[in-house]
């Protein structure tokens, strides 16, 4: 996987600490560009690179057939890029708030909270798609607060993950009860969505992600440069003049906001936040202001690479991106949990 | 290299040029008056009283050590003074203003606090850790000003951690890390320093060095309050000792007056022989002396 390659690059190439973020960010941008073009090129019908460049150029008429295929592929690629960046950013924020490198919107039940709210809103109350994102946001935020409150008394870092998983399982059960009522066809569609699939992404989905992402991603970048005190623990953070409770609450809200539109458009992508932030920290260290942009780029790259691989490598079988990421994610989760050194 | 004003943070300076030692401490000239006072303070965790009707005052220029057995409420008292916990009854006043009425940021300009445990992640750079001491002084646009830089450099020099700046927290020994954390608290340049067991993880040399630095900070006009376990060290460095037991103050005053065999036996329940040694008082258990 692409993420693995960059990880090894970061270890082999030793750069001065100050130059590293800039170098990492620019190489990730190049990788992202290459993967995006590959994503446009490959599929059930391969398209020549020249035709793609032709299509990308404005004011130049291109082959209508290419145009219609591109019309199907670009929303998918934009959704993968933005969705990946948003889920990854959410994971990194949650890791800071929970002071736990294993936190992730999927593992903490936040994605499931968003899903539950969306499913109930759509299936039971028949709400319009534009309303569902807000509902997903409310569901995700409420779940985040619930999980963190329940885990508050458990001082061990694995306690939070356990509570998150338990709440997530309960929420999935609740969703399934609703979905089973809807008949087998709807259940099949739900199953694909619940594993994080970009197959059904439309141009309007992509537009919604652009709308939310263009607001939330810059806000996350700005916020990340102000959250370093939280890494010291609540007590010491308060001692140096930060307001840890207020900051944590705002960051949790932001993390839920980042996940909700992605869940609405492509479903939950579990483990992506965990993997992306983990790789980013390996590459650039621990400063949240520098980890955040790298996390976003790594997240975008992973989701795009997984989706492109899932729809091209195993043709005619199309593997949902979420499943590929989950497989890679479990391996990285185990490695991260094993490598994590006990605190002094 | 031009001599920086902040170089006067160096502990070797005599206390006479106080105005220069503390260039931006917001002192209102109430020398001798109490900067921090604790009035009729009570606190409990879920029905169990931890502190009962405590009243104390802290003056600038004074190094106060709080000692007492485990669970006597020393750390809780320090946390309430730092505004981290809300008292059930009574109040903590900073310049006659309740600590709870100030924002965290405003409070941090006057009061630095070194928490007992470290939670900084292994990957964090020491320079970033110490630099966070300037958090309260930063605005959204003014970060890393030359004054911030100067305070960070001075604090790192005082704590002898300047050569660790580019290292990561995970690479440090417990003692090095503790000195870096103390440097962060010093970089805050607050006139009140609250230290929760600051000598944790330090070997003998750096225990002495840290307490010496704490004493010099007090001599420079700051108010330093430290929770300590070692009675000898406390008596050697502190100007005043507060001996606590069961959430109340048993004795409060000069080390020789507080650390008497009668007080020790009342608080710790052991018989000791006290040996004055210069300004220090050394207690040895009688059971071991027989």
Written overview of the protein:
The complex is a heterodimer of chains A (344) and B (290). Chain A has 14 helices and no strands. By secondary structure, chain A is mainly alpha-helical. Chain A is globular. The model of chain B is unreliable at 1-31 (pLDDT under 50). Chain B has 11 helices and 12 strands. The radius of gyration of chain B is 19 Å and the shape is globular. Chain B has a single domain (34-289), classed as Rossmann fold (3-Layer(aba) Sandwich). The N and C termini of chain B lie far apart (60 Å). Chain B has a 6-stranded mixed β-sheet, sandwiched between helices. Chain B has a 4-stranded antiparallel β-sheet with strand order 2-1-4-5, with helices on one face. A two-stranded antiparallel sheet of chain B has the order 11-12. In chain B, helix 7 (204-219) links the parallel strand 7 and strand 8 (223-227). By secondary structure, chain B is α/β, with parallel strands linked by helices. Chain A binds chain B through residues 17, 99, 228-229, 231-233, 235-236, 238-243, 281, 285-287, 341, 343-344, and chain B through 79, 82-84, 103-105, 107-109, 112-125, 128-129, 132-133, 135-136, 166, 168, 170, 174, 177, 181, 184-185, 188, 194.
What are its keywords?
heterodimer, A: 344 residues, mainly alpha, ABC transporter involved in vitamin B12 uptake, BtuC, 14 helices, disordered N terminus, B: 290 residues, alpha/beta, Rossmann fold, six-stranded mixed beta sheet, four-stranded antiparallel beta sheet, 11 helices, 12 strands, globular
List the helices and strands and how they pair.
The complex is a heterodimer of chains A (about 350) and B (about 290).
Chain A: H1 2-12, H2 20-41, H3 49-56, H4 64-98, H5 110-124, H6 129-151, H7 157-180, H8 184-194, H9 203-224, H10 234-239, H11 244-266, H12 272-284, H13 288-312, H14 321-339
Chain B: H1 18-21, E1 36-45, E2 48-58, E3 63-67, H2 74-81, E4 89-94, E5 97-98, H3 104-110, E6 111-114, H4 126-131, H5 146-158, H6 174-187, E7 192-196, H7 204-219, E8 223-227, H8 231-237, E9 240-245, E10 248-253, H9 255-258, H10 261-268, E11 272-277, E12 280-285, H11 286-289
Parallel strand pairs in B: 3-8, 3-9, 6-7, 7-8
Antiparallel strand pairs in B: 1-2, 1-4, 4-5, 9-10, 11-12
């Amino acid at each position: 996987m692409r993420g693995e390659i960059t990880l090894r690059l970061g270890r082999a190439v030793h750069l001065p600490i100050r130059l590293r973020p800039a170098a990492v960010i620019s190489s990730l941008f190049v990788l992202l560009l290459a993967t995006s073009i590959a994503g446009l090129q490959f599929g059930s019908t391969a398209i020549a690179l020249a035709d793609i460049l032709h299509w990308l150029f404005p004011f130049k008429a291109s082959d209508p057939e290419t145009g219609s295929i591109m019309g199907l592929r670009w929303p998918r690629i934009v959704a993968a890029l933005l969705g990946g960046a948003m889920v990854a950013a959410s994971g990194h924020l949650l890791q800071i708030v929970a002071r736990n490198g294993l936190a992730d919107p999927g593992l903490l039940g936040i994605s499931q909270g968003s899903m539950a709210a969306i499913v109930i809103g759509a299936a039971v109350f028949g709400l319009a798609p534009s309303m569902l994102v807000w509902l997903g946001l409310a569901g995700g935020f409420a779940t985040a607060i619930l999980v963190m409150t329940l885990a508050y008394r458990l001082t061990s870092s694995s306690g939070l993950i356990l509570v998150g998983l338990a709440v997530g399982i309960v929420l999935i059960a609740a969703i399934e009860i609703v979905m089973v009522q809807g008949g087998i066809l709807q259940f099949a569609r739900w199953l694909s969505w619940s594993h994080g699939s970009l197959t059904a992404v439309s141009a309007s989905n992509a537009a919604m992600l652009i709308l939310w992402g263009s607001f939330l991603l810059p806000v996350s970048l700005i916020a990340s440069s102000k959250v370093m005190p939280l890494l010291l623990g609540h007590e010491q953070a308060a001692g140096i003049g930060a307001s840890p409770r207020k900051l944590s609450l705002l960051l949790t809200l932001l993390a839920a906001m980042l996940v909700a539109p992605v869940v609405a458009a492509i479903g939950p992508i579990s483990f992506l936040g965990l993997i992306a932030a983990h790789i980013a920290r390996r590459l650039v260290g621990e400063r949240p202001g520098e980890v955040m942009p790298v996390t976003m780029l790594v997240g975008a790259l992973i989701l795009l690479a997984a989706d492109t691989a899932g729809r091209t490598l195993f043709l005619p079988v199309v593997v949902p991106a979420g499943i590929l990421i989950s497989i890679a994610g479990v391996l990285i989760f185990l490695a991260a949990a094993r490598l994590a050194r006990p605190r002094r | 290299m031009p001599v920086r004003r902040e170089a006067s943070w160096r502990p070797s300076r005599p206390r006479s040029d106080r105005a220069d030692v503390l260039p931006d401490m917001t002192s209102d000239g109430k020398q001798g008056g109490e900067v921090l006072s604790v009035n009729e303070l009570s606190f409990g965790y879920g029905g169990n009283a931890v502190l009962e009707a405590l009243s104390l005052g802290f003056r600038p220029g004074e190094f106060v050590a709080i000692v007492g057995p485990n669970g006597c409420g020393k750390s809780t008292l320090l946390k309430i003074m730092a505004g981290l916990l809300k008292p059930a009854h009574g109040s903590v006043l900073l310049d006659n203003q309740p600590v709870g009425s100030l924002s965290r940021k405003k409070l941090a300009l006057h009061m630095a606090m070194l928490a007992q445990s470290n939670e900084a992640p292994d990957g964090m750079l020491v320079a970033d850790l110490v630099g966070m001491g300037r958090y309260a002084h930063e605005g959204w646009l003014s970060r890393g000003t030359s004054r911030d830089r100067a305070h960070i450099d001075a604090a790192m020099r005082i704590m002898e951690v300047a050569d660790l700046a580019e290292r990561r927290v995970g690479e440090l020994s417990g003692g090095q890390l503790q000195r870096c954390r103390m440097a962060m608290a010093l970089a805050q340049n607050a006139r009140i320093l609250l230290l929760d067991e600051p000598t944790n993880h330090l070997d003998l040399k750096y225990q002495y060095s840290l307490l010496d630095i704490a004493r010099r900070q007090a001599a420079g006009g700051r108010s330093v309050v430290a929770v300590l376990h070692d009675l000898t060290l406390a008596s050697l460095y502190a100007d005043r000792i507060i001996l606590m037991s069961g959430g109340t103050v048993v004795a409060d005053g000069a080390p020789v007056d507080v650390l008497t065999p009668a007080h020790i036996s009342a608080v710790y329940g052991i018989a000791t022989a006290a040996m004055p040694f210069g300004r220090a008082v050394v207690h040895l258990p009688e059971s071991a002396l027989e």
